[in-house]
Here is the input.
Amino acid sequence: MKRLKLLTLSTFALITLAMSGCSTHTPLYNYGEYSENYYSLKKEATQETALEYQKSLEYCIENAKESRSGRVPPGIYANLGYLYLKAGQNKKAIENFTKEKTIYPEATFFMDKMINKVEALEQEDDK
Amino acid sequence: MISKKSALYIALLTLTFVLGGCTAGPTYVTKGSEFPKMYEEQPRSLLILPPMNASTDAEAKDYYMTTVEIPFAMMGYYTFPVEMVGDVMKQEGVYDTEILYNLPANKFYDYFGADAVLFTKITKWDLSYMVLASTLTVAIEAKIVSTKTSQELWRYTGMVRVDLSGGGDTGGSMAGLLVKVVATAVNSAAADYVTYARQANSRLIYSLPMGPYHEAYMRDQTVKLVDQTPKDQ
Here is the structure.
């Protein structure tokens, strides 16, 4: 009888825990200082603000687990890939564009378009 | 939980009614009844376009753009990388918002594979100086349009008005008045528009049905909102 009570109690506790899971204040994604650094970059584009912006993208990737979803937020891998593309590091650009579409299938169309562009650039360079 | 909440609402509404007598308070609608097309079409991805700037501040557009991605992603939608999308559009020669906002919505599907487009308009982004006080106003209008049906799926407005003078006494000598004006000017300089833009966003975004990456996806249709529909329509 006592055991049954304990079981009911623990089931109840579990349900409460599961339900309160929805109201937890851990955000869906961990964006770190992304927004602030993006703003600084827009306000004044210097080497320093550009570096801070890149660091905040890397932070989002490294600390993705500290969020409700455990995922890297949408667009972060794409942004990083785009920075590599602008720096002429095409291989790294493609790597990041691929990661973006792997996590978010919604991005596949756009990322494939970008990857094709990079590959076309490479072929032109080889000529 | 839900019934408790609605009971509270009813109690609050009744109280408002009793206290307010015949004057009508705000009316409430639900997300489901207000934005049924969001639940029918279930868009997964949002293409955030550069905002249209109807304010007097030329820089508002760039700054506001840095505040949009996160709140919409947090609501459970896939948001396309704003900076990259902006650059791609520039390369295509369509960065001008006037042109962008007149393009047929399906073009954004053809180019980005986006389910829906988010149009935003900055209607106010300014400081108004008065002798004794100054206020900062940030007001945003937003709408989501389907790239498949070109129909408007969601629309809302958000505004934040901040009194920067910080209160205090209003009477006094001429010297007191001068001090006050100086203090106001200092406060205004330190005021950060972007912080308030974020607040305006959070006010408007509350009404948005959750997206597929959010736990409450498709289950938030009963959430109540203040009805924004003008009474004379």
